[in-house]
Amino acid sequence: MKRIYLDHAATTPLLPQAAEAMAAWSGHEFGNPSSLHAEGRAAKHAVDETREAFSEALGCLFGEIVFTSSGTEAANLALIGAALGNENPARNRILLGASEHHCVLHTKPLLERLGYRVDLIPVNHEALIDLNWLQDQAHDDLLMVSVMQANNEFGTVQPVAEVSAWARDRGVLIHRDSVQTFPGAWTVDEPYADLVTVSAHKFNGPKGVGAAYVRAGTKVAPIALGGGQEREMRAGTENVAGLVGAAAALRCHRENGSTTEQKRIARDAFASTLSAAFQPTVRSAPRLSGHHHVRLPGVDAEIFLIRLDKAGVSASSGAACSSGSLEPSHVMMAAGFSETEAREGLRFTFGFGVSESDAFRAAKIVNETAEAILLHRR
Question: Which one is catalytic: 60, 103, 252, 321?
Fold first, then answer.
């Protein structure tokens, strides 16, 4: 029986078109984009075509795209680079959403060592940031605010338009983590952002490719030093094969239209079939069409996921792995769940290739797994 993969928020399967596009650049095409000879010019042309594809999707200028090795590196460049590039010592405070991805939250100690005060924007029980709290932070010392477009665990869609308007009115830099939402209808101007970060393997492209949008005029210092690649914003020879694959995946998504409805149909079929023993985490907040996050009270997520994996369904808790065991979800902790509850969170995420019938079958397996665990504990 075919396995059912429901962890698309973690990574997505590589599209055949992307693999095919990469094949040449993993073999007979091998030039360095910085070289002046024919092989180098061919590589540079391939990188430029990818940059054009990303700039079109984000609605920005060609030269405002900086390629990185991942969404994590892109976020680090945006946050740490903006802090290093800041020329106004009075602007020494940065705000990060409390439920952001670790690639954002884990910059906090370094930013503090650089002399910045870093505060976390509180979130409610559905991981939505507190706009009222944010309104009270309108001080002249604020350099930057970082809020993700949609939470990677809960799927909660953040009020980024309101954050953008608030920050822009006060001359505050806006970083938007769009890893879970790109490509989509949002551009760098709707809502407005100074810095946006994305990752190719979240939209059926290859791993090892990320990108940062840096609005023209935004002062960002490089955090990787060496050659003059990426307009001296990020040193290191570009991953040409990966970039070509990312461009192919991006074009496929844009040419074939949004998969939002397909994901929603599968997600809703799954959710409607799930046992009442599972408690949904998000009940009223807007969320991504492919996310369904639940708890099975009294059952540790690690135990459940191991059993589920053996039964042929791949899912996750959304939590980081440490020393072979799952840590309690920092998103759930920030949202006010207890540590015990934060260890019970289960994330099922749908994407390209998951049909409605797959979703019904997965829900049946999930229900049977839960029943077996709960029966054993009686």
Answer: 321
| Whether 86 and 138 share a structural domain | yes
| Residue where a domain stops, chosen among 255, 289, 312 | 255
User: Of 231, 255, 279, which residue sits at a domain end?
Assistant: 255
Residues 220 and 213: beta-carbon distance below 8 Å: no
Is 321 annotated as catalytic? yes
Arithmetic mean of pLDDT over the chain: 94
- Same structural domain, 233 and 314: no
Other beta carbons within 10 Å of 124: 14
Q: Is residue 6 part of a domain?
A: no
**CA-CA distance, 84 to 150, in Å (whole number)?**
27
What torsion do the CA atoms of 225, 229, 230, 234 make, to the nearest 10 degrees? -20
| Tens-place pLDDT, residues 293-338 | 999 999 999 999 999 999 999 999 976 544 345 789 999 999 999 9
DSSP string for residues in 43-95 = HHHHHHHHHHHHHHHHT--GGGEEEESSHHHHHHHHHHHHHHH---TT--EEE
Q: How many domains does the chain have?
A: 2
Say whether both 207 and 298 belong to one domain: no
Judge whether 4 lies within some domain: no
Q: Are residues 166 and 196 in the same domain?
A: yes
Helix (H, G, I), strand (E, B) or coil at 313: strand
CA–CA separation, 149 and 196 (whole Å):
10
- 52-75 pLDDT, tens per residue? 999 999 999 999 999 999 999 999
Burial (CB count within 10 angstroms: exposed 0-12, middle 13-18, buried 19+), residue 158: buried
CA angle (281 as vertex; 182, 137 as ends), nearest 5: 65
Parallel/antiparallel/unpaired status of strands 173-177 and 195-199? parallel
41 touches 34 (CB < 8 A)? no
pLDDT tens string 208-247:
999 999 999 999 999 999 988 999 999 999 999 999 999 9
CATH code of the domain in which 141 resides: 3.40.640.10
Identify which of 179, 230, 186 has the alpha carbon closest to the alpha carbon of residue 200.
179
Domain of 280 in residue numbering reads as 259-377
Q: Both 186 and 275 in a single domain?
A: no
